[in-house]
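Record now logged underneath.
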Amino acid sequence: PCFLKDWELHVHFKIHGAGKKNLHGDGLALWYTQERLVPGPVFGSKDNFHGLAIFLDTYPNDEATERVFPYISAMVNNGSLTYDHSKDGRWTELAGCTADLRNQNHDTFLAIRYSRGRLTVMTDVEDKNEWKNCIDIAGVQLPTGYFFGASAGTGDLSDNHDIISMKLFQLMVEHPLEDESVDWTKIEPSVSLLKSPKDNVDDPTGNFRSGPLTGWKVFLLLLCALLGIIVCAVVGAVVFQKRQERNKRFY
């Protein structure tokens, strides 16, 4: 089990096979969960899990999808959610991105960072030796004491899913004093969202998540609204004055 509050996981992997176009499947999953080594229908592992899952999905089961595969997505579950394989998990997806990670002749990497309630997923699949942002979600609550793992699944079509290495790093981050009294092993996996994950069905990009509205954001929104009202009032006054002058000239 991992008892780090802030961590970063680097995964060196390779997904490859002889299948062309969509003649391959299904994909790889990376886990930070309460359960471990429990086989199931979600990329080879248990459904209704507790914790975090990152899916590297290589096959579009939903024919109506607008997304380009392979597709990386994130899901946080408290045991109450079911992964809908037929819809590629879109009902429960928090965010995601397209990544050309299959059948590459160079090394491919994925990084998962969790720090102070923020989940970030980055990829290095273009042989540029640099991280590219994929997922960035605020308001994520994950407990300590869960297990890291990986699984993969295939259906009628097959592929090779290789985990070459998994390296975990501790992040040295300062926390507020009130965090010291929290029992991090008792936290329930959750995400504070501005929208329901189901709203993501209508968003082909997947990345719409951000943190909750803070005092500064509310102030800026009110300031922008006030400035807009002032501008409209000034423009209205100028237009009214010009019309009055035009009417005078007419007389």
About this structure: The longest strand covers residues 160-170. The chain has one helix and 13 strands.
